[in-house]
Amino acid sequence: MTTTSTAGTRRSSRSRLSRVESRQALGFMSPALVGLALFTIVPVGLSIVMSLFHWPAFGERSFAGLGNYVALFTQNPDFWPALRNSAVFALLYVPLNLVVALSLALALGPRIRGRAAFRVLFFIPVVTPIVANALVWKMLLQPQGLFNGISVSVFGVELPNFLADQNWAMVMVVVMSVWQGMGYNMLIFSAALEQLPAPVVEAARIDGAQGWRMLRSVVLPMLSPSIFFATVMTVITALQVFAQPQLLTGGGPGNSTLPLVQFIYNQGFKFQDLGLAAAAAWVLFVLIIGLTAFQFRAQKRWVHYEH
Amino acid sequence: MSTDRTEVLTAPPLAAAADPVPDAGPRPRRDGSGTGRVRLVLAHVGIVLAAALFALPLVYAFFSALKPNNEMFSMPPTLVGSEVRWSNFADVFAYGPFATYIGNSFFVAVAGTLVVLAVSTTAGYAFGRLRWKGRDVVFVLFLVTLMVPQEVLVVPMFIVMQWFGWVDSYQSLIFPFAFTAFGTFLMRQFFRGIPFELDEAARVDGAGPFRTFWQIILPLATSAVAVLAVFTFMAFWNSYLWPLITVVDYQSHGTLPIGLATFSGQNGTRWDLQMAAAIISMVPTTIIVIALQKHLVKGIATAGLGGR
């Protein structure tokens, strides 16, 4: 890490200076340190303790050892389905999100008129309250809603009751989530596309690359750091999904769209079993860290950095 | 792994922000040939279709907000009902304490943003521009906490709020997630890009570190501060899971997102009012995005990690 660039500062004065600066730094740091301790480090420690206790919201706590973890994996009827649902959601949501976002970023090239306006439009659902977005989609997906209404009145085809159907419910949660979230990645990719080094692209064009080949051999490799970044972030958000299924389907029908975060919420704040909720939160945390670490390991195979 | 992760995670966005080369992307051939023309027209048609499809839910929601409730699900569906009821937007405020929700959301978002800005800029300054023992170790600790998602923290945070006696209070809506390391990290990265000679010159002129920070460094960082402010405001405005947990009495501390769900009760859902309320809740952040559209791409590139 660099220190100040002034050359020729004498050693003694530097050490005195740095002692003074240390004190000053502590002053600047203290709000952040106190806040981080109270609202991150303490809760993290506390959640380890909680996960080892029977910790009802009201009433006696008792030490449980690994009982909560054992209960999660062997007894609780919703935990494995919740894990499966989060996995299914991520497996559908992440690729779909990335492909749509990248396609739109590529399509909105510099020669498209009004590209700034289009970008704003595609980005709007990212910043509007997710609750509002979900409620809008809930209205559209009602059996009497717009989608089925159009299908019946125009094509005479009755669509399935999307939010009450075992298989369709998850599909619609994914579709709604992609609609709401992909604008973020689209802007990440747009920013990266604007940074592509013109000489390289030009050279490739002179060499006869165009269309699909240009995309595959030149543009995508140069975008790979951004694609990697977007993938890592999108996997994390996919595992954090809560509001969309909670509002669209309530996790149902049955528990077919109940993701891990909603499981945590239900256990902790509906069924008042905070110990079990803390244990499940740790499983979620380990999953997120593990998947992120795995992606960083795997990036050497496909991410190209400029050197 | 932690330093490695942040290094790589921010490398493309921050580099992108530092050196904007507009529109260096692949250009279609400018040979003016007929096929190039046709392609461009097709591209426009495709994008307009995609945009229309994409906008459909929002447009339909807006028109639904103007319908009488019993026409929400008419068959065949219509865009405009038998009458256009602008009064729905007023009725939202009569149905429940909706004005309170809006006021609370604004208050919490503004207060939370101010806290985040104060904490992040000062800590970012200490990490980015002051030399002190243990700085790099503490910084890594900060970065590690970036990896703890809010969803993992909410359960123990509720207990911490019980300890503080903060359950169902403004404090609990503002403070718990205002100290995340992201803002500090963003400001530190930005501060490091400012020439260090400025600090030296200020010191020679007799300015203490706080004056240097307040009068010299911070004014040079307004763009980064603005990006952080916008993202933080929107994150607070849209926040759902934590208010759902910590707010007990909606009448006094309810925020907009959790208030939106109150239009469906035992007597069915007032879809008309719910849609009107949803549209109202979308207005502030939509205005921000439209107003800042010129800076959107660059802002996202700067914030990189942020906003979610």
Shape of chain B: globular
At the third CATH level, what is the topology name of the domain at 91-303 in chain B? MetI-like fold
> Treating each run of at least 4 consecutive H or I residues as one helix, how many helices of chain A?
12
Q: Which CATH class of the domain at 91-303 in chain B is shown? A: Mainly Alpha
**What is the CATH level 1 assignment of the largest domain in chain A?**
Mainly Alpha
CATH architecture of the largest domain in chain A: Orthogonal Bundle
The largest sheet of chain B has its strands arranged as 1-2
Question: What's the helix-strand series of chain A?
Answer: HEEHHHHHHHHHHH
Largest sheet of chain A: 2 strands, antiparallel
Describe the structure.
In chain A, 44% of the residues are buried. The two termini of chain A are 20 Å apart. Chain A is globular, with a radius of gyration of 25 Å. Chain A has 307 residues and is mainly α. In chain A, strand 1 and strand 2 form a beta hairpin. Chain A has helices at 11-51, 67-74, 79-107, 115-127, 130-140, 146-155, 168-194, 198-206, 211-239, 243-248, 260-270, 274-298; strands spanning 53-54, 62-63. Chain B has 308 residues and is mainly α. Chain B has a domain at 91-303: MetI-like (MetI-like fold), CATH 1.10.3720. Helices cover 69% and strands 1% of the residues of chain B. In chain B, strands 1-2 form a two-stranded antiparallel sheet. Chain B is globular, with a radius of gyration of 24 Å. Chains A and B meet through helix 1, helix 4, helix 5, helix 6 and helix 7 of A and helix 1, helix 2, helix 4, helix 5 and helix 6 of B.
Keywords:
heterodimer; A: 307 residues; mainly alpha; MetI-like fold; two-stranded antiparallel sheet; 12 helices; globular; B: 308 residues; 16 helices
Produce the secondary structure layout.
The complex is a heterodimer of chains A (307) and B (308).
Chain A: H1 11-51, E1 53-54, E2 62-63, H2 67-74, H3 79-107, H4 115-127, H5 130-140, H6 146-155, H7 168-194, H8 198-206, H9 211-239, H10 243-248, H11 260-270, H12 274-298
Antiparallel strand pairs in A: 1-2
Chain B: H1 2-18, H2 34-64, H3 87-95, H4 98-129, H5 135-146, H6 150-164, H7 170-174, H8 181-192, H9 197-204, H10 209-220, H11 222-238, H12 241-246, H13 250-253, H14 256-260, E1 264-265, E2 268-269, H15 271-291, H16 296-303
Antiparallel strand pairs in B: 1-2
